[in-house]
Write a structure and sequence with these properties.
The complex is a heterodimer of chains A (about 375) and B (about 400). Chain A has eight helices and 16 strands. By secondary structure, chain A is α+β, with helices and mostly antiparallel strands. Chain A folds into two domains: about 250 residues, no CATH class; about 110 residues, no CATH class. Chain B is built from three helices and 30 strands. Chain B has a 19-stranded parallel sheet that branches. Classes of the chains: A alpha+beta (about 375), B mainly beta (about 400). Chains A and B meet through helix 3 of A and helix 2, strand 3 and strand 6 of B.
């Protein structure tokens, strides 16, 4: 079990923040919704740096959801003395009192004023920034932080929107729209409406079972978390690190048994693994047997069988304008005839997929799905 | 139209149409904060709450949504309280409801980018006096569905108006126990559509100027198949609007000029309707085989054949004289001449050969017609339209009448 080699480092890195200053640790609010993000004490602002509070664990996913090229700082905190229970396929059982945060932010183009709304379209380097001690506020545009808190009655989702001077984020249950411009390295700018979801829309994805409508974390699953993360003290598999911190129990000792999604951009994985991982994290929270999109008959979990329910030669049901005039969800060999490619490539609210969470096209993700469809074999009737 | 017995609904409907344009401009409520206020009310609602929306035209930039059981949303009238989504930038629908014991009444949802009102996974749903409309007329770019409950049970949809949907104006799908009455659907691709639904009563509705007036469909690859629909006392006339559906959607294959279409659904009874002047045919009975699908595209166990269809006591007039599509046009001209017309019922001719007993379908699986002089044409779809038949003999039969749908009102 190679993971264990670096374990002492983890303890060091996570406890390192315990210093002389009496910073308050994370706080669980059992039945009230604080108006300020700072009241949760999950993240801390030290002068010009955003970092994590003590015992708050950063994490990352193999293939993440696309959110308009936003970078994401993900953290989880589990009440001391408790631990999450491993599950091979479902969301881990996190104890009541657990808090998860996800901060959506962009880096600023060099020389850009944050008030201009210009944000850089580049790849997520949160992991590296954390290793360097945190996110430097003057180089980023913090947009929102979403909280998932596990209360006695279930998980609750709360969106917080950062204020203009980035001193705190304020609860905005009705969501928000921010006018931003994605700036590429060649300085071309693409205006778009960044949408902060309202509390119901959080459930639009996180109520992965549309019958119970119970909200659950999506990323806290073995297949998403089973990857290395570079902590300040060194690199380690995340599940091993969580286990070492007594945050997680029940991980099989034979690590080969732990499911693992592909890194969508890592060509050492097969195109099928990469595409299925991409569809999993971007689609399967609705497109599963009990999800909000079970009405469509399209099932995109990693273990969903190949065939019409995966989209192959499947005619749409209620796609409306989303068909783009194309007949089948997937026409093997022909992305340009496939509704998948059309909807992933659209930004119109009536046709795009996913239905929310983005206002721009993920060019690289679309190319992955196109490439995957192009190499599929078969013929539609 | 002169011989209709019940002009009351007709007149009422016309009056409402007259109001729906122009009048609202005078009382636009320029309250930019309203969107947020309403969404906040919907988030904070408690069981039993009635959220009232005053008269006025309110603009929305995003979908609004409700996920709390037992809430009523009430406007001041479908032409007084208008939620306009013309400036919508995000969200796949105007309003999304995922809740039980939900009532919405007396308001309009206009120009949403996607579906207007979607209600999903709920029991005991009442949609009353709601107008969904795309105000620019029938356009392919309009949103797909007007009123759109799906995966629901015990659903009452009454006195609604749906105009301009690029799929179905008033739709119910994958649902059980449904009453759909006194609604008006105009200028949609499908006026009223019952899809993969069990036990539905569709009566006293008014469908005109759609591509197809009333559709009772069963689509493959869905979690449930439908059956047991009664369509009666409706007025279904002049549904001759050119199909403006999106290529690839099931309704894009509906020929313009269809009154009532049954597609691959079972135990459907059509009676006591006024059906007239639908240019392809007043009634079409067809199989999914006629809608772009091929067998390899659907899941095993799916039944593609319409069975147990009973058409009786309707008042037919006109229609069938100018069918949509080259194949039907040619067929009509070759049998009935340029000025003739199809009989009132057009069947595509697909049936399940495994059910034959002594070369005949058992009565329970047939299309039975007891409708005075109304005839049928079997266009021989399986034989590529080569041997059409107008033989009424196999269709002179009757079926046991389906019972009325009873809604089980959920108790709080």
């Amino acid at each position: 079990m190679r993971w264990l080699k670096l374990l002492p480092l983890v303890a060091a890195l996570i406890l390192a923040a315990c210093g002389t200053d009496k910073v308050k640790g994370p706080t669980f609010f059992a039945d009230s919704n604080p108006q300020q993000l700072s009241e949760w004490h999950m993240l801390k602002l030290n002068g010009n740096t955003l970092s994590l509070s003590d015992r708050v664990m950063p994490y990352d996913l193999n293939t993440p959801l696309f959110s308009d090229y936003a970078h994401k700082l993900r953290t989880v905190w589990i009440p001391p003395g408790k631990s999450a229970k491993y599950k091979p396929h479902d969301t881990f059982d996190l104890p009541v009192g657990s808090v998860i945060t996800k901060t959506f932010y962009y880096q600023l183009p060099s020389g850009a004023d944050r008030q201009s709304g210009q944000v850089l379209r580049n790849s997520d380097n949160t992991e590296a920034l954390l290793k360097q001690g945190g996110i430097k506020l003057r180089s980023v545009h913090l947009v929102e932080t979403r909280i998932l808190v596990h209360r006695k009655e279930g998980w609750v989702a709360l969106p917080y929107v950062w204020n203009d001077d980035q001193s705190d984020a304020v609860l905005k249950r009705t969501g928000d729209i921010k006018q931003l411009q994605l700036v590429r390295e060649d300085h071309s700018a693409q205006p778009f409406d960044y949408v902060v979801p309202n509390a119901n829309q959080c459930a639009g994805c996180h109520a992965t079972n549309a019958e119970t409508r119970a909200i659950r974390p999506i990323g806290i699953k073995a297949r998403h978390l089973n990857k290395d993360f570079t902590y300040t003290g060194g690199t380690m598999n995340q599940l091993a690190a969580w286990t070492r911190q007594s945050m997680l129990s029940g991980v099989p000792s034979d690590t080969a048994q732990v499911p693992r999604n592909a890194l969508w951009g890592d060509v050492s994985f097969s195109i099928d693994q990469r595409a299925r991982s991409y569809l999993d994290i971007n689609c399967s929270h609705c497109h599963n047997l009990h999800g909000a999109a079970d009405t469509s008959g399209l099932l995109l979990e990693p273990d969903s069988p190949t065939g019409p329910s995966l989209g192959l030669c499947k005619l749409p049901i209620a796609a409306g304008t989303g068909t783009g005039g194309r007949r089948f969800d997937i026409v093997p060999g022909y992305p340009s005839q496939s509704i998948f490619s059309y909807r992933i490539g659209s930004t119109k609210p009536s046709e795009m997929m996913p239905e929310m969470g983005r206002a721009t096209v993920h060019d690289e993700g679309l190319k992955l799905i196109d490439d995957w469809i192009a190499q599929l074999r078969g013929q539609c009737g | 139209m002169t011989n209709w017995q019940i002009p009351v609904i007709f007149v009422a409907a016309l009056t409402l149409t007259g109001c729906s344009e122009g009048k609202t401009d005078s009382n636009i409520a320029a309250d930019p904060g309203f969107e947020e206020k309403l969404q906040e009310q919907l988030l904070d609602a408690k069981k039993g709450d009635v959220i009232t929306i005053p008269p006025g035209k309110f603009s929305f930039t995003r979908s609004i949504s409700l996920a709390i059981d037992g809430v009523t949303i009430r406007g001041a009238g479908m032409d007084k309280t208008i939620l306009s989504f013309a400036g919508q930038v995000a969200g796949a629908e105007g309003m999304l409801v995922t809740a039980n014991d939900f009532t919405i009444e007396n308001l309009a949802i206009e120009d949403s980018k996607g579906d207007a009102l979607k209600v999903t996974q709920g029991n005991n749903i009442v949609i009353r006096g709601v107008r969904t409309e795309w105000t620019g007329g029938p356009k392919t770019d309009n949103g797909a569905y007007g009123i759109y409950p799906v995966r629901t049970t015990n659903v009452l949809m009454e006195d609604n108006v749906a105009i301009g949907a690029s799929d179905a104006g008033i739709y119910v799908g994958q649902s059980k126990n449904v009453i759909l009455r006194r609604n008006r659907a105009e200028f949609n691709v499908a006026g009223i559509e019952i899809e993969n639904t069990v036990d539905a009563d569709v009566y006293d509705n008014f469908a005109t100027n759609n591509t197809g007036g009333i559709l009772v469909f069963n689509m493959p690859n869905l979690p449930m198949e439908g059956k047991n629909t009664r369509v009666f006392r409706n007025k279904v006339f002049k549904n001759n609007t050119a199909n403006f559906g999106h290529k690839g959607t099931p309704v894009a294959s509906v020929p313009a000029g269809t009154g009532i279409t049954i597609n691959s659904n079972d135990n459907v009874q059509i009676f006591d309707n006024d059906i007239s002047d639908n240019d392809t045919a007043n009634v079409i009975v067809s199989s999914v085989y006629s809608t772009n699908y091929s067998e390899k595209d659907w899941s095993k166990g799916y039944d593609p054949y319409p069975e147990g269809i009973y058409i009786y006591g309707n008042r037919f007039s006109g229609g069938g004289g100018s069918p949509d599509g080259l194949a039907l046009k040619a067929l009509k001209a070759s049998i009935f001449g340029l000025t003739g017309h199809f009989p009132d019922v057009l069947w595509d001719g697909f049936y399940n050969p495994k059910l034959l007993v002594n070369g005949q379908l058992p009565v329970k699986d047939r299309i039975c017609i007891e409708n005075g002089g109304a005839g049928i044409i079997n266009v021989d779809g399986p034989g590529k339209y080569r041997r059409p038949s107008q033989d009424m003999v196999p269709h002179r039969c009757s079926l046991p009448k389906l019972p009325a749908v009873v809604l089980q009102t959920a108790k709080g």
